[in-house]
TrEMBL record:
Highest taxon in the source lineage: Bacteria
Species assigned in the record: Marinomonas rhizomae
Name listed for the protein in its UniProt record: Glutamyl-Q tRNA(Asp) synthetase
Domain Glutamyl/glutaminyl-tRNA synthetase class Ib catalytic: start-end pairs: 13-245
Leader peptide range in chain numbering: none
Keyword Magnesium applies: no
GO CC annotation: cytosol
Example of a GO biological process term: tRNA modification
Family according to the record: Belongs to the class-I aminoacyl-tRNA synthetase family.
Keywords for this protein: Aminoacyl-tRNA synthetase, ATP-binding, Ligase, Metal-binding, Nucleotide-binding, Protein biosynthesis, Zinc
GO molecular function list: ATP binding; glutamate-tRNA ligase activity; zinc ion binding
Any one Pfam family match given in the protein's UniProt record, by short name: tRNA-synt_1c
Keyword Metal-binding part of the UniProt annotation: yes
Length: 299
């Protein structure tokens, strides 16, 4: 079993990496704040990365809008913003590495055929290189564990056995899984603070780190803000855009991070008080935070 608790103290480098498939919504503001506050509380750097590898759903106009909204809340990248769609050649090189190590296989299964074969890939799929195909990560019996400062010990025992995530799609676009691992490594990201919905991707990412021989960042997962159906607030369920630079919205977002400030006079003041007050242990083992009645208008 691989235990990814690095004892080497690295300089803290955190990031927020939105996908520009819509404007920034309340749930993403909470995530952005958590990663920012954690970085700044520990005198680290915080960078923004635009995860727009999915060329069918991402739009440059949303990237611009998201960055403007983040800036209006004083969440400003310490370094130039990396835009993933400009780096496909790098993901291609890393996919090539995985192919060389026989850790990836071509697949032309459809969702329908996968259902028919109970999620297994028939032999003809794996020899499908002449037809349009995706590239998937091979299944593995590797077991991973990570020490999440918020969620506690996360053990991933079976996650990779029957799950072969797509690394590059049939239409030529790279997947989030490959791009995020490559970029976090290339940008020397030391800490990830992200939503609990991403726990399910963690084993696949740790496995990619292992295959490349890289040390993964320390990862912790903040609770998800959920709507009254218990679903994550997301663009998929039509969460609306938040207003730019709205102090009350910021205070409500901080409230879900267990920071309740008393009448700060400006966004700048609220952010600096929030950095002092940030204490992730207050969120311990909480996976979901239902949106409170007074905040329903925000989603
Ligand atoms: Zn297949």
């Amino acid at each position: 079993m691989s235990n990814h608790d690095s004892t080497v103290v690295k300089i803290y480098r955190g990031r927020f990496a939105p996908s520009p498939t819509g404007p920034l919504h309340f749930g993403s503001l909470v995530s952005a704040l958590a990663s920012y506050l954690d970085a700044k509380k520990r005198q680290g750097s915080w960078i923004i990365r635009i995860e727009d590898v999915d060329g069918t759903r991402c739009k440059p106009s949303f990237s611009k809008q998201i960055i403007e909204t983040l800036h209006s809340y004083q969440l400003i990248s310490d370094e130039p913003i990396r835009v993933q769609s400009q780096h496909s050649d790098i993901y291609e090189q890393h996919l090539f590495e995985l192919k060389k190590r026989q850790a990836a296989f071509p697949c032309n299964c459809t969702r329908q055929s996968l259902t028919q074969y109970n999620g297994n890939h028939p032999l003809e799929c794996q020899s499908s290189i002449s037809k349009p195909h995706s590239w998937r990560l091979k299944a593995s019996s590797a077991v991973y564990q990570c020490q999440d400062n918020i969620q506690g010990t996360l053990l991933f025992a079976d996650d990779l056995k029957s799950n072969c995530p797509v690394l590059k799609r049939k239409d030529g676009f790279f997947s989030y899984q490959l791009a995020v691992v490559v970029d976090d490594h290339l940008q020397d990201i030391s800490h990830l603070v992200r939503g609990a919905d991403l726990i399910e991707t963690t084993a696949q990412q740790l496995h990619l780190y292992d295959l490349f021989g890289w040390t993964p960042p320390k990862i912790c997962h903040i609770p998800l803000i959920t709507n009254h159906f218990g679903d994550k607030i997301s663009k998929q369920n039509h969460a609306k855009a938040i207003e730019n630079g709205h102090l009350e919205t910021l205070l409500r977002a901080l409230h879900y991070l267990k920071i309740d400030l008393i009448r700060p006079s400006s966004i700048a003041e609220a952010i600096s008080l929030a950095i002092e007050a940030w204490d992730p242990s207050k969120l311990k083992e909480i996976k979901n935070l239902p949106l409170e009645e007074q905040d329903l208008h925000l989603i």
